[in-house]
Structure formats: C-alpha cells, structure tokens
Amino acid sequence: MNAVSNKAIVQVVLPAAKSVAELRPDFGAIEKCPGRGIVVTGIAPPESGFDFHSRFFAPKFGINEDPVCGSAHCGLAPFWCKELGKCDFVAYQASPRGGVLNIHLDEQNQRVLLRGKACTIMEGTLLV
Asked: Does the record carry Transferase as a key word (predicted)?
C-alpha cells in the first residue's frame, strides 16, 4: 500500500483492483483523516477492460462513499498516466452502485476530460 496526500484528498494505492473492491472502510476513522476525503485505487487486471479501479470516501462531508466521483478521477488521471505511460483510461469506480469513467488527460493544457453516462440531478439558475 502506498499513500499520497495533498491538502484536499489522501490517495491510497493498493496492489490490485480486487483489493479496492473488497475494502471494508471504517467511516469513523476516515472522518478523522486530514483533507476532504480518501480515494483508494488499484490497477485492474488486463482482461477486465479497465485500467484501474477506485473508491472515494468523504464521511466528514456527509458522503460515506461517493458512487462515482469525477473530482477524484481528475486527481487519479495524472497518477495513472505516470504509472501506465498513457493518457487515456477506462476506470471503474467500485462503489456499491459502481460506474464507468472514460478519462483523457490533456497534459499540454493541464486538463482532465471525463466522459461517460451521467444523469441530471438538479438544474437551477444563479443570480449574481
């Protein structure tokens, strides 16, 4: 296991996607960790069709586990780019609901593009 921290999210790297999926989080302990949450990730087996799996936990903000967290994958893309030597990924968030993300890291413009299925939860207008 390898853990990396920035001010926002602690990143934990496990040796395999299976470890990520089988993880039984202690939300009380996670809530005491620094930052806004913990993302756990591991490399996927080649036959799975995925590059890596992940899970994101943020219980101190009322989200024990985010089903499919786009912001966490914006941080994972540069990490996996260095690890796998590529900029396009198919990731699986192994939460109980689960979800697939197609990710492109645009290194030149320092942007991460997330592609996949989504549904609108809320619409609104902000008056400034």
From this structure: no
Residue 123 domain-assigned (yes or no): no
Domain count, the chain: 1
Give the integer Cα–Cα distance in Å for 42 and 3.
12
pTM for this entry: 0.84
Of the candidates 67, 104, 73, 75, which has an alpha carbon nearest to the alpha carbon of residue 6?
75
Domain with 103 in it: what CATH number? 3.10.310.10
